Amino acid sequence: MDYLVNLSTLPPDTQSPERMAREVVTIRRALPPEFRLITGWIAEQFGQGWASEASVAMTRQPPSCFIATREQKLVGFSCHEATARGFFGPTGVDEGLRGLGIGRALLFASLNDLKAMGYAYAIIGDVGPSAFYEKAVGAVPIPNSAPGIYAGMLKS
User: Fold this and answer.
1) How many beta carbons lie within 10 A of that of residue 128, not counting itself?
2) How far apart are the first and last CA of the chain?
3) Neighbour count for residue 23 (Cβ, 10 Å)
4) C-alpha distances out from residue 46 to 53, 83, 95, Å
5) For residue 144, what is the DSSP state?
6) What's the burial of 135, exposed, middle or buried (CB within 10 Å: 0-12/13-18/19+)?
7) Is the pLDDT of residue 128 over 90?
8) Which of 12, 56, 94, 136 could in theory staple to 75 by disulfide, Cβ–Cβ 3.0 to 4.6 A?
9) Can you give the pLDDT at residue 96?
10) Cα 23 from Cα 102, distance rounded (Å)
11) Residue 142 has what DSSP assignment?
């Protein structure tokens, strides 16, 4: 099921800057020269489908992909405007670093970028951890949205 986020009521992210400083994690927009490193890491960690979506986000100008780094190593990413206009995702964090607020910081980076682009709403496609999105940004389910944009996708 897809979820909707009202960007006009998106709360300010007061938690992430302090948490990321404490964890020594940097959240920033990806740079085009990092394309192969980022998409390769995503493919290894999360599969070719997400790497393909991230490839689209990386080729936008500016890239619509944010990354989380620690000691100049990639530890997480979030994309938007990859599969469809106004869509958030995919996003993922290194399994050993989950629970530190990195995913939340990446979510806010992408949603704030969508808001700056002029969107009033963002769609989170095919939501996995719905409780996380509901709590973090007030996301609500979109009725009759399953199977959504991914219906009929090719199988390997």
Assistant:
1) 10
2) 22
3) 16
4) 11, 16, 10
5) T
6) exposed
7) no
8) 94
9) 97
10) 9
11) -
Tokens 């992210």 identify what position? 13
With beta carbons less than 8 A apart as the criterion, state whether 19 and 99 touch: no
Matching residue, tokens 């964890």 = 23
Q: What is the pTM of this model?
A: 0.96
Residue 11: which H helix or E strand, with range?
none
Amino acid making up residue 115: K
Q: What pLDDT does 41 receive? A: 98
What number of other Cβ atoms are within 10 A of residue 52's Cβ? Answer: 15
Q: Say how far apart CA 81 and CA 59 lie, in whole Å.
A: 11
> Structure tokens of 142?
């979109």
Distance CA 68, CA 92 (A): 10
> Distance between CA atoms of 22 and 40, rounded to whole angstroms?
28
**Distances, alpha carbon 121 to alpha carbons 24, 30, 31, 53, 85, in Å:** 31, 23, 26, 20, 11
